[in-house]
Amino acid sequence: MIKVRNFIINRLKAFKYAAKGFWILITTENSIIAQIIIALIMTIIGFIMHLSATEWMFQTLAIGLILVAESLNTGIEKMADFVHPDYHEKIGFIKDISAGAAFFAAIIAIIIGLFIYIPKFI
């Protein structure tokens, strides 16, 4: 019984830390705020264009992909800056790779958006 209680308490603590990180991201990180604004715009456009359930699924997945990639990029950049606050070539390389992953996610999201929206304009 104690193991179950500890498990539940630990999960609640983990949820609290995750919610705190989420709040920090959406209130302090300009890249995340910009992506949320774009996500809101695309959601409005989705309602205007009457997306199907499948299109909504793919658009939501693309938005989520971007937000996750940007969040992980931010975390990696913060960690790199903490470990080595001064400019260092290897830290710059790591940060570039991290930003490249977010860029890769953005390219995939744009391709998904093109699949959804181009047929609606043709």
Task: Write a compact overview of the structure shown.
The protein is an all-alpha fold and 122 residues long. It is 90% helix and 0% strand.
Which features would summarize this protein structure in a list?
flat, 4 helices, mainly alpha, 122 residues, 0% strand
Care to describe what's here?
- With 122 residues, this protein is an all-alpha fold.
- The chain has helices at residues 2-28, 30-48, 53-83, 89-121.
- It is built from four helices and no strands.
- It is flat, with a radius of gyration of 19 Å.
- The termini are far apart.
DSSP helix count?
A: 4
Low-confidence stretches: none
Shape: flat
Report the major sheet: none
- The separation of the N and C termini measures 62 Å
Strand content: under 5%
Radius of gyration: 19 Å
Query: Which class best fits the helix and strand makeup?
Result: mainly alpha
Helical proportion, percent range: over 70%
The helix/strand order is: HHHH
How many E-type strands? 0
Query: What is the arithmetic mean of pLDDT?
Result: 95
How do the strands and helices of this protein lay out in sequence?
Blueprint: H1 2-28, H2 30-48, H3 53-83, H4 89-121
